[in-house]
Amino acid sequence: MEREVIALLPEPGPARTLAAAIFATTVGNGAFITASALYFTRVAGLSPLTMGAGLTAAGLAGLFAGVPGGHLADVHGPRRTTAVLTALTGLCVAGYLFVSSAWLFVVVAVAFAVCDRAAYAARQALIVSVVDGEKLVRTRAFLRSVTNIGVTVGAGFAAVALVVDTREAYLAVLALDAVSFVACAAVFLRLPDRAADAEAGERPRWYAVLRDRRYVALAATNMLLLLHAPLIEVVLPLWITRYTDAPRFLVAVLVVVNTTAVVLFQIRVSTRVDTLAKAAREVRTTGLLLAAACVLFATASYVSTPVTVLLLVVGAAVHAHGEMLQASGAWVVSYELAPRDATGQYLGLFNTGTAAAQQIAPAALILLTIQLGPPGWFVLAGIFVLAGLGMAVQVGRAKPRDARASARTF
Fold this sequence. Notes:
This protein has about 400 residues and is an all-alpha fold.
């Protein structure tokens, strides 16, 4: 067993350094996500409405930070840019320690979202700059598993604070998150500095990717597939309690099924997707798998309790498989179709779709599935099938990065 675990690890070098950095910050993030709502309402004194409005404003502001953040990485080098933006994100988290009014909360939340999304975009450019092409998909799969583990560990730390339930305990969670970002930035500086060779004056403008209509269309189609993201944690708990007789603890079981599957199988799934042709095939399969999960979830409301439980667990497993294929296919597509002189801003735009889905999907899916009931699940299944087929066609017609015209031509 020990040998199997070690075999999953990337070889010593940049990939392991990246894993250490990302583990550090995701532990802090896991703690923050778990305890922040209670901190803001019980300690900082914000109303739930104020907190929700501030986080929504921050999320919308963050949507516009990905492309500029990626462009900064293209111009100034991904290592330095990622480290600086990550450290700034940590400073923004530290700012939450001093929030005492609604306006100050909004300012800090917006600053945090902008720095965080810009740092994420720069980090994608950093990953592809220090990891060789044939190892890239496996490395990103490993980093995704590390992210899930880190968030889980962080949530465990936050659980202690929730039990203690004192001001000092919540402040300690925020301090942990702030320190984790600074530690992450310091680890990033240990990576090789592989800035691009082209002179800054020769680089494409920061908005060049916005003129690449095919890439924008791909990012938008991928965003439709990313509607699956809140299904397990947001939609299914409501679905189970309102439309089925399944026990409520099943919600936790489904989250464990999803998280465990990603940790154990993401690397294995991703190693099969290393070309554009394979990515096109897998995103098509992704649409079918996510649609099948939707059908299973909808059907669970019509049957007896034991069958309901079985359908929900199987549906969660099918969803997890589709989620892993979607991530693997998207990694290959986003990288292989980005020009070499603008990798940062292209990946920044593609990953903006992730942030947009996080903003849009929860409310949209609750309206579609919880308000409409079972028919809404079938509508969502159709969306997934069309998005998977559409993205496969788009990828099939696209040119790989080595054959693409420079973004300077736009």
